Amino acid sequence: METHFRTCNLCEAMCGLKITHQNSEILKIEGDFEDNFSRGHICPKANGLKDIYLDKDRLKFPIKKTENGWQQISWDEAYSLVVSKTKEIQEKYGRDAIGVYQGNPTIHNLGTTMFAPDFFRLLKTKNMFSATSTDQLPHHFASWLMYGHPMLLPVPDIDHTDYMLIIGGNPLASNGSMMSVPDVAHRLEAIKNRGGKYVVVDPRKTETAKHASEHFFIKPNTDAFFLIALAKEILAIKNLELDESKFTGLDQLKQEINNFNLNDIEQITGISGETIRTIANDFCSSPTAVCYGRVGVSTQAFGGVCLWLINVINIISDNFDKKGGAMFTLPAIDFIGNAKPKDRFSRWKSRVSGYPEFIGELPVAALAEEMLTEGDGQIKMLFTNCGNPVLSTSNGVQLEKALETLELMVSFDIYLNETTCHADLILPPATGLENPHYDLTFHVLAIRNTAKYSPPLFEKAEGAKYDWEIFQELRNLFLGENQTIVPPEVKLDLGLKFGPYQLSMDVLKQNPHGIDLGALKPIAENRIQQKINLCPDILAKDLSRLQEAKHELFATDSKQFWLVGRRHLRDNNSWMHNSAKLMKGKNRCTLLINPADSDFLGLKDHETVVVTSRVGQVEIPIEITDDIMPGVVSMPHGYGHHRKGIKLDVAKQYAGVSINDLSDEKVIDQLTGNSAFSAVRVSVFSLLDLKK
Fold first, then answer.
1. Per the CB 3.0–4.6 Å rule, which of 138, 148, 301, 327 could disulfide with 307?
2. How confident is the model at residue 341 (pLDDT cuts 50, 70, 90)?
3. Where is each 4Fe-4S Mo/W bis-MGD-type domain found (predicted)?
4. What is the distance between the alpha carbons of residues 515 and 508, in angstroms, rounded to a whole number?
């Protein structure tokens, strides 16, 4: 028997794994207790690595759609088709006739992260899209405006804080997210053990909320009002004096938030003024404190404002760049460096709806309409890379229709899923345990500075290719060059040697459990090349839109509900649903509804209901629970595997329905362009009543 140590790459937590294997067979996957970062913790998803490796549905060689179905072809034929059709379509229609969508797993795969951008940049198209605008774009937007770089993202110093306020986040299910934190349950419990507390504000009593010191329900899409009230109370408590050589905008901030009335905020959010004052007092009186917001605050109509205000709260409470507060990492490979601020927003707009570009990408809410609407710049060919936007972006049914209009679609993916089944060509890379791994991005978001390299465990199949080979070979063919194919370790070694700790690949290979580089330290002065702006004009102007929205939020309609998503520890978006180990157990694709609402509608537990929105409807069984507040219903993300053309045998058995057959592509954060999944209104009807 042999032992292999590696970092799990299935979510952001970077858990260390100990894999026991013999004769190419995995015998056991367990936590690595010698990994200083994860301390032996793993979640159930780790076993999915074995399932993916052995999955009979996983693609390993290029396949092409023909009149007689999918046919395997050679890499040379696949490459030639990609390059020739790309050039042909751009010559005929223009550069922007090519669209690119990159999914969440791109950032979890080292070779794709390193080498896919070089190929896609060659296309010189403005129609670039990614999962960023379905998830965390407001985080990057606020950091760009306040700190000068979209990846300068403050991370909660969870191991040293005395008070943690979690808004719209569920780290016990997500293992962090924009805060890479393995063993988060014990780390949160440690806050209470040292005499502190952590508090959750969420429209659902989540897995994290159930263990929290306190939980407060809040109406969806109203967090910006709550955060304004909290900031207002903190400013009243604190006699704030900020260093004017480092900060600007305090007076304007005070002026802007004083325009909001606390009595209005009580009615809008459902949280009393007394509760808000208590939270503010507890936050300010704790030796250290940190406010953390995640998907719930990011994916709503005022996501940009929410993330700005969370940063503001950490600063004005004197918990920014401070032990136990919100801090920056200093990763071993520092691709941020001392980057100077530059224009990254609204340099161009989407052709149909005029949505703004940010960091080189357009909001994915515009993707379908850019394919469906005729005219100059219409997308005629699409690349998808490690993504399943039919299930993960708003109005999946509309997107399906749009994909069928393309002249050519090429997917880099290991599965024939709900999106790639519409492709003409699929190029699958080697994956998971066949790949080397280093978390370039998540070390930037980690709650501790560490570095770790994982070599491949198994050889890839004969004739298969790594992602880093595919993208470099396509680049060479596109340019007519013959550059040497460089493995990722070459670039990693350079990044490590020129990084702040002057490490090397040799050093990392000698430390299979990773290298602990220490706790987070105050380094903002060295990372930020501008004054921190507490009240950027772009964000301040969006407060007028927030004021206008309050009239709609005051209104109540007993026949309509706010629809919010949810995540399960054994789910990872849609692409882990073909793992039998992760999918077994009771049905997780249900609609959570409060008892008061189910009684009003005359519904019984586990009854199948019809949920409708502006864009579509689904049928789904309900779960009646006090864990969801009245007026709100919740569905999980990533299901909907009933669609024709897919080859995911396990996922089909747990098909469920897609929340994004209800989410509305027109409901977005108008400022940033991020999809506002938590701002969609739906109606619920008894299936039995509709059939009568």
1. 138
2. confident
3. 1-57
4. 7
Residue 231 above 90 pLDDT?
A: yes
Residue with tokens 């900031």: 231
Coil/strand/helix, residue 59: coil
Q: Are the C-beta atoms of 564 and 203 separated by less than 8 Å?
A: yes
- Higher-confidence position of 676 and 339: 676
Domains of the chain with bracketed CATH: 2-54 (3.30.200.210), 63-134+343-518 (3.40.50.740), 137-332+526-537 (3.40.228.10), 556-691 (2.40.40.20)
* Residues forming beta bridges with residue 214, ordered by sequence position: 199
> DSSP E strands: which ranges in 194-246?
197-201, 214-216
Say whether pLDDT at 64 is over 80: yes
d(CA 247, CA 312): 11
Residue 528 CB partners (closer than 8 Å, separation 6+): 147, 148, 152
Letter for the amino acid at 276?
A: I
Q: How far apart are CA 234 and CA 224, in angstroms?
A: 15
pLDDT digits (tens, 9 = 90+) for 111-153: 999 999 999 999 999 999 999 999 999 999 999 999 999 999 9
What is the signed CA dihedral for 668, 674, 677, 680, rounded to 10 degrees? Answer: -10
Find where tokens 């301040």 sit.
540
Is the dihedral angle over the CA atoms 289, 181, 394, 364 positive or is it negative?
positive
Q: Mean pLDDT throughout 277-299?
A: 97
CB 34 within 8 A of CB 513: yes
- Whether 8 shows a pLDDT value over 90: the answer reads yes
Position of tokens 């020129």?
498
Of 179, 218, 175, give the one whose Cα is nearest residue 678.
Answer: 218
| Residue 102 bridge partners (DSSP) | 130, 385
**pLDDT higher than threshold 90 for residue 337:** no
8 A C-beta contact, residue 317 and residue 284 = yes
Q: Higher confidence at residue 341 or residue 66?
A: 66
CA distance 455 to 48: 18
How far apart CA 161 and CA 286 sit, in angstroms, is 9
From 655, 592, 644, select the one nearest 623 (Cα to Cα). Answer: 592
Length of the chain: 692
pLDDT digits (tens, 9 = 90+) for 488-522: 999 999 999 999 999 999 999 999 999 999 999 99
Residues 6+ apart with CB under 8 A from 545: 302, 670, 671
Distance from the first to the final alpha carbon of the chain: 63
- Write out the two tokens for 415: 């599965």
Chain centroid to CA 68: 38
26 closest CA partner among 16, 18, 35 = 18
What tokens appear for 287 in the block?
A: 């030796």
Task: Supply the pTM of this predicted model.
Answer: 0.97
The pLDDT value given to residue 339: 67
| pLDDT score of 472 | 98
Q: Return the closest-CA partner of residue 382 out of 677, 131, 82, 42.
A: 82
**What's the pLDDT at 533?**
95
Residue 92, amino acid: K
Query: Please, which residues have CB within 8 angstroms of residue 377's CB and are 6 or more apart in sequence?
Result: 94, 96, 97, 126, 127, 351, 370
What 3-state DSSP class applies to 277? helix
- Measured in whole angstroms, the distance separating CA 365 from the mean position of its chain's CA atoms is 15
